[in-house]
């Protein structure tokens, strides 16, 4: 009995080590993506964005992120952590070329289905792609600001049912979203 118990413990320790080894195999990717996230937000966090500097960083970030996704797939938080996973989304969301967004949208959707990305992230990219293709957005994630500083949503398909679509993507109601945007704009 003791031998059997030792054998089971040895197997458990082996598998725990393998899990730790696999998680550590992404540590460099995680560190790289955490730096990418920092650079993605570097000038966007300022009251006045320096688009020339941010654009240069965005181009570098896009090159890094696309290489990672193309070689490793869309890595989930369980492998690379929250910030690194967020960097994957934000860099694709901030890509300047529609073709790039369209290329990675199906990959993001699949990642969201598998739990490797948030469904809400897929909704944001879907809406951005829809608008850039001169179609109406589905989830109401893309907003504009009026001259008085309040946010509004335009070019929205079937606005009466937008909140049920938002809920299906783990997004809170549109009215709450707009209030949050307005309050953050007023805080600046």
Rounded to the nearest angstrom, the distance between the terminal CA atoms is 68 Å
Mean pLDDT: 88
Described by strand count, sense and barrel closure, the largest sheet is: 2 strands, antiparallel
Overall shape: it is globular
- Main sheet strand line-up: 1-2
Run of helices and strands: HHHHHHHEEHH
Pfam family, one: DUF6624
Polypeptide structure, described:
With 188 residues, the protein is mainly alpha-helical. The chain folds into two domains: 27-117; 137-188, no CATH class. Helices cover 68% and strands 3% of the residues. It contains nine helices and two strands; from the N terminus they run αααααααββαα. The chain has helices spanning 2-24, 27-41, 51-72, 77-80, 82-93, 98-114, 119-132, 162-168, 174-187; strands spanning 143-145, 151-153. It has a two-stranded antiparallel sheet with strand order 1-2. Strand 1 and strand 2 (151-153) form a beta hairpin. Helix 2 (27-41) packs across helix 5 (82-93). The longest helix is centred in the first third of the chain and has 23 residues, at 2-24. It is globular and about 45 Å long. The model has no long low-confidence stretch (mean pLDDT 88). Pfam families: DUF6624 (PF20329). InterPro entries: DUF6624 (IPR046732).
